[in-house]
Design a protein that fits this description.
The protein is α+β, with helices and mostly antiparallel strands. Helices cover 43% and strands 16% of the residues.
């Protein structure tokens, strides 16, 4: 690592091994241009991690054993301590806790609690560098991914990070307020995997008058088609 193309090459090599030597199909891979259905066992590859999701624990275990055998054969054995047996009671995937029984996903509550304590400690100190704050904000940003509307909390923190840089400054009241609000809302930073489609679709854009908002009632089938079209658009842009 340390080379700008290292992650890319590791990703490509990992996918090539899985595509050519296992029964895991590329069409079942979780990617932005694939469908979002869980009507079959799905898998995701992220550099040196491989995660599987599905409804049949026996099939997932079979695929796990096959995957581990193949990686052993090519000289890239899996790490036993990171191997997790199929479970519906919570498995950590790339830092997010995916719970199949509760049908939720988000950063594990224990990690959120520790992040909240770190954040409060930083506020209590009253001073920090922009780099110190950037590290805290980075952790909160990862937690916000499960509930992206939470990003609206942060504004002053970004200005502070840019203005302070490596220098130590008193923490602005606006920064302390935003960090405190993030800690208060941490219990809401999860997403429901069984959430129904919202029939009211809203589209917004930048507008000098502040009224660049439209809304429409859409059937579920239309919303799903829009999702497919938007992911295809992202793929080619």
């Amino acid at each position: 690592m340390g080379w700008s193309h290292a992650a890319f090459l590791a990703q490509e090599a990992h996918e090539h091994i899985v595509n050519t030597k296992t029964s895991l199909s590329p069409r079942d891979r979780i990617e932005r241009h694939r469908d979002a259905q869980l009507n079959r066992t799905r898998h995701m590859i992220y550099i040196d991690d491989c995660m599987m999701l599905g409804l049949d624990p026996d099939e997932i275990r079979r695929l796990q054993v096959e995957y581990a055998r193949v990686m052993e054969e090519v000289g890239l054995p899996t790490k036993p301590s990171k191997e997790v047996l199929p479970s519906a009671n919570g498995v950590e995937c790339l830092g997010l806790w995916v719970h199949g029984t509760d049908m939720t996903t988000g950063v594990h509550p224990d990690k959120l609690h520790r992040l909240t304590l770190r954040t409060q400690s930083l506020i209590n100190v009253g001073q920090c560098t922009g780099e110190d704050l950037a590290r805290i904000v980075g952790h909160w940003s990862w937690a916000f991914l499960a509930r992206r509307s939470a990003f609206s909390i942060f504004n002053a923190v970004y200005r502070f990070i840019e203005a302070a840089g490596k220098k130590r400054f008193d923490i602005w009241p606006t920064v302390a307020r935003e960090l405190t609000l993030a800690a208060y809302l941490s219990i809401l930073l999860f997403a429901r995997l069984d959430a129904p489609w919202v029939e009211t679709t809203v589209a917004t854009d930048a507008c000098m008058t502040g009224i660049g908002v439209t809304a429409a009632q859409c059937a579920e089938v239309d919303l799903q088609q829009c999702l497919v079209l938007s992911t295809c658009f992202l793929k080619w842009t």
